[in-house]
From TrEMBL:
It comes from Pontiella sulfatireligans. Residues 440-462 are annotated as: Disordered. This is H repeat-associated protein N-terminal domain-containing protein. InterPro entries: DruA (IPR025639), ISAs1_transpos (IPR047647), Transposase_11-like (IPR051698), YbfD_N (IPR032806). It comes from the Bacteria. Residues 236-329 form the H repeat-associated protein N-terminal domain. Transmembrane segments: none annotated.
């Protein structure tokens, strides 16, 4: 937050604000945006900055005068203190990032001391009204707000007074490009504020309420499970897939198929999402794929177009592609995400073991004793399975498979809370869960969009 000493843009008449309520105005017209930008540059040492993602410019008005500017935008992709405080997994953070918004600028246009407690009053009013403004503009309601205060200039008292929570200091780095940060020698204090009760519980919950699902469709990178050296190895392997295209293609087959594979590995489910992932690939990742040329006016390697990728995939020998990819996965077994099967074995339903074992080798990685297959006791298979899972602090990049006995909310919650994923069988007698699963599957789009039917073409044409 920045307070001005003088403001030539204000009327000469000084307002006491007594008897007048503060009003929040959303900036929309070009004229107002230009004025907002000019004032931000004039009275904040960092100017307006570069708005990113969904952006909202606010001014606080009293007696017809602009007395404060606030700029809201997308949150930081990763913040250690914030992410630990929320308690969400990497996968949840990647998907739900848009539900956290950042107060990028807060500028008072009044003279210091002119109106005591004005900053905290403004912040209190703004955070109460922000969700409704955001919902009206972008179609979803945010759950959490974050901001930073410069510890060299301000203590952040106004944030504390208006209910924000201080989570610690940053390391003093600024994002210079998509792939690296540079030191700025100005560590800042991180503040957060829940925009509704139990916001953090919602952000880390397994299932979000319907009203927040639109904001949980972030285009964030996802969680890349392979390292730089594995990207290079993947590229080398996929170069061996037969190329059905002409010899003079700009992008070689290994680079395109590597981008597709990396996008799928990061959790993207259709080609449009994969291409958005490709646009965010870092410079080192692009270099590993030997992409040709550079983007105009940039040091970034160019990526293939959607059309180039689509055309290759529609002509590709999928059997050859899957064979090469399977061989690569086999070579890197042990360094890639793990799939573990959870199951119990019993002797006459009285003495048994519940085991977590690797899918490929059947080698057990964890065991626990259980007294019965089913029942309500603490040593039945279900309770024993949950106890065994709780012993694992980190299930990142791990998929747990299990039969219908373990199809319970608590089991799923334990796995997700530890960063893992699950694939659990659902039977017909679990009607509600089965219906929800079927509806979710219907919403999934195919990797490649179906080609449009040509004029006069039969519906059963091959």
């Amino acid at each position: 937050m920045k307070t001005t000493k003088t403001n030539p843009d204000r009327h000469l008449k000084r307002s006491s604000l007594s008897g007048n309520s503060l009003q929040i105005k959303i900036i929309e017209t070009k004229k107002d945006v230009a004025r907002f930008t000019k004032l931000a540059k004039q009275f904040h040492y960092m100017g307006e900055g570069c708005p990113a993602g969904d952006t909202l410019r606010m001014v606080v008005v009293a007696d017809g005068e602009w007395i404060a500017l606030l700029l809201w935008g997308s949150a930081c992709y990763r913040l250690k203190h914030r992410d630990e405080w929320i308690g969400w997994t990497d996968q949840q953070r990647a998907a739900r990032q848009k539900l956290v918004v950042q107060n990028r600028r807060f500028v008072l246009l009044t003279e210091p001391g002119e109106h005591p407690n004005l900053a905290s009053r403004i912040l209190g009013k703004v955070v109460r009204e922000l969700p409704a403004f955001w919902l009206e503009r972008f179609g979803y309601e945010p759950l959490l707000a974050e901001t930073f205060s410069d510890i060299e200039a301000r203590e952040g008292t106004c944030y504390k007074a208006s209910g924000w929570t201080a989570l610690g200091k940053t390391k003093g780095y600024s994002r210079h490009a998509a792939d690296f940060y540079v030191p700025n020698d100005r560590p800042k204090k991180l503040w957060v504020r829940e925009l509704r009760k139990n916001a953090t519980e919602l952000l880390r919950s397994i299932h979000l309420p319907d009203e927040f699902k639109k904001g949980a469709a972030s285009d964030a990178d996802g969680v890349m499970p392979i390292k730089a050296r594995q990207i290079e190895s993947l590229h080398e392997a996929l170069c061996k897939v037969p190329d059905p295209r002409a010899k003079n293609c700009v992008y070689h087959i290994g680079a395109i198929l590597s981008i597709v594979a990396m996008g799928v590995f990061s959790g993207h489910k259709d080609l449009k999402a994969i291409m958005r992932f490709a646009e965010r690939m870092t410079l080192p990742q692009r270099k590993k794929l030997a992409l040709p040329g550079f983007e105009k006016g940039s040091r970034y390697k160019k990526i293939p177009s959607y059309t180039a990728v689509y055309n290759l995939l529609t002509q590709l020998d999928l059997d050859a592609f899957s064979q090469v990819l399977s061989e690569w996965l086999a070579q890197h077994r042990g360094t890639l995400p793990v799939a573990l099967a959870m199951d119990g074995k019993f002797i006459r339903d009285t003495v048994g073991l519940v085991t977590l074992a690797e899918h490929d080798t059947n080698s057990p990685v964890a065991m626990i004793d259980a007294s019965q297959k089913e029942g309500e006791g603490e040593r039945c298979e279900l309770k024993a399975s949950q106890k065994m899972l709780r012993r694992h602090d980190d299930l990142t990049n791990t998929v747990i498979t299990a039969d219908a006995l373990d199809c319970q909310k608590e089991t799923a919650r334990i796995i997700v809370d530890r960063g893992g994923e699950y694939c659990i069988q659902v039977k017909d007698n679990q009607k509600t869960i089965r219906q929800e699963a079927e509806l979710s599957a219907k919403e999934l789009s195919p990797l490649l969009a179906r080609p449009k039917k040509r004029m006069g073409e039969s519906t059963d044409a091959r």
